[in-house]
Amino acid sequence: MIWRRSSETHLALRVVTTFDAAVVALDAGPPPDGASSARGPFSALIRATLRAMKIFGNPGSTCTRKVLMTAHENGAPFEFVLVDMAKGEHKQPAHLARQPFGQVPALDDDGFALYESRAMARYIDGKFGGALTPKDAQARALMEQWISVETSNFSPHAMKFIYHFVFKREQTPDVLKTAGDKLDLAFRELDKRLAKEPFVAGPSLTIADVCFAPYLEYLGPTPVAGKITEHVHVARWWTEISNRPAWQKTVGRD
Ligand SMILES: N[C@@H](CCC(=O)N[C@@H](CS)C(=O)NCC(=O)O)C(=O)O
């Protein structure tokens, strides 16, 4: 992965993971007969950089993290372009051209533009091997069901606690009470499901599990953490997801 700022003027802040492997592979091969220095290591880096899929986002954003984890799980080569939300870059014309609602993340894959984190996760998984999408129709339907549960019945309520306790955007006691009650139901249903299967759609990690991860991470320092630990199957599932190398990379703990 390459990092650069969305201003396009500060290049290549950090180079890590599978993108390195692509560049190393390019550089390792002998130049073709008669090739000039234009096939040297530096030009290989430039060529690979220009081709790489770009993910525009913010490393702290929950929606960006869904996309980053999907890319890491698939070993997808990509360039991460920082959209500095503290500077309001997500509301500037350059980013609005990519994401008309002024949100992160967004993606540009060699001219193919996409926004909406769950759509991006599905696209990346589909393009780079589909490791996170079950082939079986029923398992795939369950994955979709749990992505919808995350979208409608989990993350909106989790975000109330995350706003209040992590980002210090105060919520009223009534709002937190309602959100807590909704989360109780979601955790009960998750726990029932995870008592039967290792992951929400079945035996292996899917995009649905990935979509829950950013919220579970941020709930850590909130009172909702107790709800995670008291649901033993949810706790086991979260331990498993959060220890995956792809998640560790996503949150910068690798
Ligand atoms: N449905 C969108 C939601 C994106 C979203 O809410 N992103 C947040 C960061 S996690 C954001 O950009 N917030 C700034 C804003 O809404 O102004 C997606 O899944 O991509």
Can you tell me about this structure?
It is a single chain. With 254 residues, the protein is α/β, with parallel strands linked by helices. The chain has 11 helices and 6 strands. The protein folds into 2 domains: 126 residues, Glutaredoxin, CATH 3.40.30.10; 114 residues, Glutathione S-transferase Yfyf (Class Pi), Chain A, domain 2. The protein is 56% helix and 9% strand. The chain has a 6-stranded mixed β-sheet, sandwiched between helices. The chain is globular. Bound molecules: glutathione. The site of glutathione has 10 residues, from helix 3 and helix 5. Glutathione binds next to helix 3 and helix 5.
- What is the residue-mean pLDDT, rounded to a whole number? 88
Q: Round the Cα radius of gyration to an integer and report it.
A: 20 Å
Order of helices and strands: EEHHEHEHEEHHHHHHH
**Number of alpha- plus pi-helical segments:** 11
Low-confidence stretches: 7-27, 31-38
Multimerization state = single chain
- Main β-sheet description: 6 strands, mixed
CATH topology of the largest domain: Glutaredoxin
Can you tell me the CATH superfamily of the largest domain?
Glutaredoxin
Strand line-up across the major sheet? 2-1-4-3-5-6
Strand content: 5-15%
As for the number of domains, it is: 2
